[in-house]
Design a protein that fits this description.
This protein is of the alpha/beta class and 402 residues long. It is 28% helix and 23% strand. The chain contains 11 helices and 18 strands. Helix 6 (116-125) links the parallel strand 6 (110-113) and strand 7. Helix 8 packs parallel to helix 9. It is globular, with a radius of gyration of 22 Å. It binds ligand LLP. Ligand LLP binds at residues 48, 51, 69, 92, 148, 150, 184, 187-188, 220-223, 265-269, 304, 308, 361-362.
């Protein structure tokens, strides 16, 4: 349901702010969009848990029969709680400890390793493991900003192609079983051609090294969304779809294992635009020519603007009309705590609501208790229903562990 301002105001007065409000229909629509990316049987769309691991959202994903990518045991644990079968859960991890590798191999999950040391660790922990994947580092990276580019030379992920031969020999010598390859160039891609390039690169490795019996080839996530509602800078899904169909059809026609699963694991695309974060304006402060709009949305609730200088569309529910360039800031004890800077917005009054759009991905999942602020409530709307899908934390939660 598309919420009206009045409905948002009602929810805010019932449940208080800050609150994340998700729209079930939008998540389902995004799943459908992704699932129609390719008509071939071989294509599978999985979900990257890290984007949003709310139990209820995971259950919704499960109802759509998707597999889930986990970064480690915690995400495995929550996905089990959401009802996923062992076979629907796989791990794309980095820098696992001995203990965590043991926990994961004990569950007999498909595990993608991304360094020679992790490959050796896997074999030490579970000699001859039969559900191994290798994450190959693409020769190039792409994505919205340096922190989320994961291909190419300047970051920690993946096994370089120069080391691939060694890995294959190690796998053979230790009777491990390589069932898949994966890569991921980076996140928030709006240029579909980089995603095509990454697909082609991984398929070329499969062909060159004659890996004829792979069960899975996984190209990661990274499908971008248009956070900036004014510029309409969208990922060209139609072109992506068209080219993928051609590439995959050709590939499967010559690949010996006709059942090979060609997979993507979007996180952001599935959930980002399904949620708004709603807060309350607490202060309107004029300092020289600057206007600071203070809110209860600190970076403990949404860290993306602070961490990546990310853009989120912001609006106020207000009766005012005068627009000015404003800084919208939160309640953390740091000057760097902002939602947007120098943005032309209607100047609100204290008590008005602020809405931050497209916060369903890497919003709550990256929230914290910095300054001992409580994590917000999460609501899910569906048709005319509103469900609390996670309660606001209580002060007692701040005492856990003592
Ligand atoms: N697969 C792998 C191996 C990944 O590393 C990631 C994201 C994904 C899939 C999902 O990517 P997506 O479809 O969501 O772009 N916190 C950052 C994003 C970090 C992404 C890390 N890896 C943000 O808020 O923009």
């Amino acid at each position: 349901m598309k919420l009206t301002n009045t409905q948002i105001q009602d929810l805010a007065s019932n449940y208080k702010t800050p609150m994340y409000i998700y729209d079930k229909a939008v998540i389902e629509q995004n799943i459908n969009t992704m699932k129609t990316l390719c008509t071939m049987q071989n294509i599978k769309i999985n979900y990257a848990t890290k984007a949003n691991s709310n139990l209820h959202i995971l259950k919704l994903i499960r109802e759509h029969n998707m597999k889930v990518d986990c970064t480690g045991y915690g995400e495995y644990f929550i996905n089990k709680r959401a009802g996923f079968e062992q076979s629907q859960i796989y791990v794309v991890a980095n820098n696992l400890t001995f203990e965590e590798m043991k926990q994961l191999t004990d569950q007999n999950l498909v595990i993608s390793v991304d360094s020679i040391d992790q490959l050796k660790l896997l074999n030490e922990v579970a000699p001859g493991y039969q559900k191994l994947m290798i994450r190959v580092n693409p020769t190039f990276g792409a994505g919205d900003n340096e922190s989320i580019v994961t291909g190419g030379a300047n970051h920690k992920f993946g096994i370089d192609i120069e080391d691939f031969e060694f890995c294959l020999k190690y796998i053979k010598d230790n009777t491990l079983k390589l069932i898949g390859l994966n890569n991921h160039v980076g996140s928030l891609n709006l240029d579909y051609t980089v995603m095509i390039r990454a697909v082609e690169e991984l398929l070329a490795i499969v062909t060159e090294y004659q890996l004829h019996d792979l069960q899975i080839i996984n190209f990661g996530g990274g499908f971008g969304i248009d956070y900036n509602h004014e510029t309409n800078n969208k990922l060209d899904l139609e072109s992506l779809k068209h080219q993928l169909n051609t590439i995959f059809t050709n590939f499967v026609s010559i690949y010996p294992n006709k059942e090979v699963s060609l997979e993507f694991e979007p996180g952001r695309f599935i959930v980002a635009n399904s949620a708004i974060l709603v807060g309350t304006v607490t202060t309107v402060k004029r300092r020289g020519k600057d206007i600071y709009i203070g809110t209860d949305l600190g970076f403990s609730q949404l860290v993306r603007p602070v961490m990546y200088n990310s853009y989120h569309h912001v609006e106020f529910i207000t009766n005012n009309t005068m627009t000015r360039n404003c800084h919208v800031v939160g309640n953390m004890c740091e000057s760097g705590d902002y939602i947007c800077k120098d943005r032309k917005l209607i100047v609100p009054d204290v008590g008005d609501l602020v809405i931050v759009y497209d916060t369903g991905a890497y919003g709550y999942s990256m929230s914290s208790n910095f300054n001992n602020r409580l994590r917000p409530i999460e609501l899910l709307t569906a048709d005319d229903d509103v469900t609390i899908i996670r309660n606001r934390q209580t002060l007692d939660d701040l005492l856990i562990g003592y």
